[in-house]
Amino acid sequence: MQFMNLQATIQKMAKYPSAWLLLVQVLSLIIHPMLEVTKFHQAIFSCFNVAALALAVWVVNRSPLFNWAAWMLALPAVVLTITYVTTENAQYLLWAQVFESAMYFYTAVGLVMYMFNDNVLTRDELFAAANTFTVLAWGFALAYSVCQQLYPGSITGTLNPDQPRSWVELIFLSFSILSSTGYGDISLVHPIAKVIGTFQMFVGLMYMALIVSRLVTLTAAVRKD
């Protein structure tokens, strides 16, 4: 009886992969500032990254995109992340974030295709809409992180302007640009960083124009029915 209840619970949870990925990202965002003062914060944060990548593969598996491509991006990211944690070699972190960023962008494309695959609005598609925004924000934040590692000083701020921006600052910057609310106290200095920021503004605008408008249209259609 307990096994059947557990199986039913797992099957119910499996219906909402987008919700679980969103939950892991939100928890990562909440916990990370508190972990920065601990000795093993990078290792713990990397565990969240690995969990997020595994869930991202699960999400893509539900979309029309090829699952093997997701694994080709996720597995190197996981291996490189673990290698960085054990060796503390910054080169491994750089390449891990390159693959992670690509994986998040790939997941965003998969989520969009999943939402546009039919004209039926489901609960998981609502989570997918929110998830699309967060995975885009994560993907661009990782791109900014790679940029400032390749070009030190390319992203600066009012607080400790000579120091590289922390992950919390980069994710704040990414959410700010993607939502078209401005840069805040962080500035993009290097041309490459500005190109990434410009492209993110365009993606944020397209998100509002395509995803949000589609959700509004489908919601209105459901109410009419």
Task: Explain what you see.
It comes from Methylotenera versatilis (strain 301). Residues 147-218 form the Potassium channel domain. Keywords: Membrane, Transmembrane, Transmembrane helix. The structure is a single chain. The chain has one domain (2-224): Helix Hairpins (Orthogonal Bundle), CATH 1.10.287.70. The model has no long low-confidence stretch (mean pLDDT 81). The protein is 77% helix and 3% strand. The chain has a two-stranded antiparallel ribbon with strand order 1-2. It has helices at residues 2-13, 17-35, 41-62, 67-87, 90-115, 123-150, 167-178, 191-224, and strands at 155-157, 186-188. The protein is an all-alpha fold and 225 residues long. The longest helix has 34 residues, at 191-224. The radius of gyration is 18 Å and the shape is globular.
Summarize the helices and strands and which ones pair or pack.
Elements: H1 2-13, H2 17-35, H3 41-62, H4 67-87, H5 90-115, H6 123-150, E1 155-157, H7 167-178, E2 186-188, H8 191-224
Antiparallel strand pairs: 1-2
Organism: Methylotenera versatilis (strain 301)
Pfam family, one: Ion_trans_2
Keywords: Membrane, Transmembrane, Transmembrane helix
